[in-house]
Amino acid sequence: MTTVTNLGFPRMGTRRELKPALEAYWHDDTKCASLLDTAKQLRRRHWTLQREAGAQVVPCNDFSLYDHVLDTAYMLDAIPERYRALADADPLAGYFALARGAQRDDVDLHALEMTKWFDTNYHYIVPELHAAQTFRLRTHKPVEEFLEAKAQGIDARPVLLGPVSFLLLSKTIDGSDRLALLDRLLPVYAELLGKLKDAGANWVQIDEPCLVLDQDMDDHVAYRTAYRVLAQIPRPKLLLTTYFGALDDNLALASQLLVDGLHVDLVRAPNQLDDVLDALPRQHVLSLGVVDGRNIWRTDLDHVLPLIKRAHARIGGERLQLAPSCSLLHIPIDVSLETELSSELRSWLSFGRQKIEELRTLRDALKSANALAALEDARQRQVSRRQSSDVHRPDVIARVDALNAKDAQRASPYLTRRDAQRKRFTLPLFPTTTIGSFPQTKDVREARAKYKSGKLQHADYEAFLQEQTQQCIRFQEEIGLDVLVHGEFERNDMVEYFGEQLDGFAFTKHGWVQSYGSRCVKPPIIYGDVQRPAPMTVRWSAYAQSLTSRPMKGMLTGPVTVLQWSFVRDDQPRSATCCQLALALRDEVLDLQAAGIGIIQIDEPALREGLPLRRKEWASYLDWAVECFRVTASGVADDTQIHTHMCYSEFNDIIEAVAAMDADVISIETSRSRMALLDAFVRFHYPNEIGPGVYDIHSPRVPGIEEMVTLLEKATAVLGPEQLWVNPDCGLKTRGWPETYDALQALVEAAHIMRQRVAVVA
């Protein structure tokens, strides 16, 4: 009998129940018991939901209070020494300090680095290792959650991040070889697997997602060593799980590892099926990822069913499992809650629960004619979507077709533009600014909610926003920032806000997806051709500029980031949708310029996130991604300064593409890495201006003046003072006003100190 399984489930709850529990604990650690009780209730609810939807095998240990990679590092006692005293005294406080930093009494800890999980918008905490690293089993979380499910009557399958991928996703702080730690790590994995077997686990899902990346011979040796060692102990059966792409040249390796089953992603890589079937050992279970765990569209079952039947004919039903392509962490839980969407659009969508139901339909279609009605229903949904006039707009297609090379070129080269901009703005060395948003306080959120529910009149809401904007500008003037922003109090989310004003987008009420920690987003749904019916940001930027004589930045989210942080239609190439977004945003850029806004920031934090996982596919993606940014930005005059912002990305291997964007100023995250990310810009001799972040806004910790000065001195050691801006790592939306006030005052003072030091040297 073919089995329906799941690889992972969203953690936050349909109404983000985990978020307030986390934030209450962070503000008052006496709420620990309440947080743990909420977490337990969510796990129980989600196991039940998955079983009711049709999953015969559900995952456990996929739940996390912050991040599953952090959970693994903490479980393995891979805790940097500076956190150890706190972790020993208060394990939960120590756990969160790794993710968020800690600043209280005599404790002052930076958070660990955070970066994107492969090509998703989920962020993971990067484990920090060193050559003398030791490991031990500090916690028994996988065993405890397995027993918790068992007590509920559910024989769940524990999920572990595999040992090789754990090391490859980590960093060493001393330049040593991560994989050299494998021999010390494997005994701990062996101990854990033994404990899971003793607890009654029959199978363990062991995730090795790095197998879909370019791997070298050292990596291959590590995989072979790891699974040879783990094969020599009494343990549960292992399902080696890969996702986000094809195994490709790692298939022979994966099929030879001493495990008991293999999961492959047939959504991203359907063409690998025959090769996988040829390579699969006779006794192995094969798990097919046939519904998309990354996107929310209904599966074309007529397309998928032949793949399943082909596998079924080769290996039979007993060894065949049907699953999502990857964990369902990346999508919302249940589309049936979205009662405000049109019934037609809702019929095209499939969230977590519906993905499992689709798998059940596919399983039933293998064994019974009873699935014919469900298959026909799915077929009609596909037809409805293909034929909808709401999806296809000939005028948008015609405008894209009319683009030419000049539309992606600034009128003059950078040095000419730089001179024109310096003459216009007369900014000092180390000009100070912020990335865009200011704290979205409880009052701001409540006012927005009242306005949307009709409890606050439009005029009253406008007056409230004007007051918030005025206060924000006066604050920036008071502390001495050089280039101001309006604070973005009218905006809910940096993508959602724009999508709400563009044709071709739809929005959910409960479609929450975790980005990191308690931070959740409701990604817009791009279901049709995109165009801008009216200006989106001009009114508030122009109003803000009218309140001050200092330069005001207009703030936009770039086309690649809107694309990456939305659920994108899958009926045309992503490049085509991105081009439509670029043209819509180009109209906004030109309208901002016409309104007198001379500095315009087009944020592209997701540019690298969209990079294909295999290097051979990079050039094609970067060509169209960079082109779309340039289409957005290139219609302006020489003295209009274009900024872009990127955060939590490694730039070394795409620095040429970053330079090709031809932004006048780029701001990047560097505070957690202590300016390490600047190395790429130095080696490349990046010619334009750079704002390396000196304030980590993802932590409540407030850095001091000298700390910021130290970071800026590191920057001036490798870049000219005339190239450097001073700014936080990212927007300040999630921070409170007291910490924002203190941090930005320190930032401005640090810039003043740097100007004085440069003047003395000169």
TrEMBL record:
EC number: 2.1.1.14
Co-factor requirement: Zn(2+)
Homology family: Belongs to the vitamin-B12 independent methionine synthase family.
InterPro entries for the chain: Cbl-indep_Met_Synth_N, Cobalamin-indep_Met_synthase, Met_Synth_C/arc, UROD/MetE-like_sf
Statement: the UniProt record of this protein carries the keyword Nucleotidyltransferase: no
HAMAP family reported in the protein's UniProt record: Meth_synth
Binding site for 5-methyltetrahydropteroyltri-L-glutamate: R16, E17, L18, K19, K116, N121, R519, C520, W565, E609
NCBIfam families recorded: met_syn_B12ind, PRK05222.1
Alphabetized UniProt keyword annotations: Amino-acid biosynthesis, Metal-binding, Methionine biosynthesis, Methyltransferase, Repeat, Transferase, Zinc
Residues reported in the UniProt entry to bind L-methionine: I435, G436, S437, E488, D603
GO molecular function terms noted in the UniProt entry: 5-methyltetrahydropteroyltriglutamate-homocysteine S-methyltransferase activity; zinc ion binding
Residues annotated as catalytic: H698
Binding residues for Zn(2+) 1: H645, C647, E669, C730
Note on how the cofactor is bound: Binds 1 zinc ion per subunit. Binds 2 Zn(2+) ions per subunit.
Annotated GO biological process: L-methionine biosynthetic process; methylation
Superkingdom classification of source: Bacteria
Binding site for L-homocysteine: I435, G436, S437, E488, D603
Domain Cobalamin-independent methionine synthase MetE C-terminal/archaeal: 430-752
Protein name: 5-methyltetrahydropteroyltriglutamate--homocysteine methyltransferase
PANTHER family listed in its UniProt record: 5-METHYLTETRAHYDROPTEROYLTRIGLUTAMATE--HOMOCYSTEINE METHYLTRANSFERASE
Job of this protein: Catalyzes the transfer of a methyl group from 5-methyltetrahydrofolate to homocysteine resulting in methionine formation.
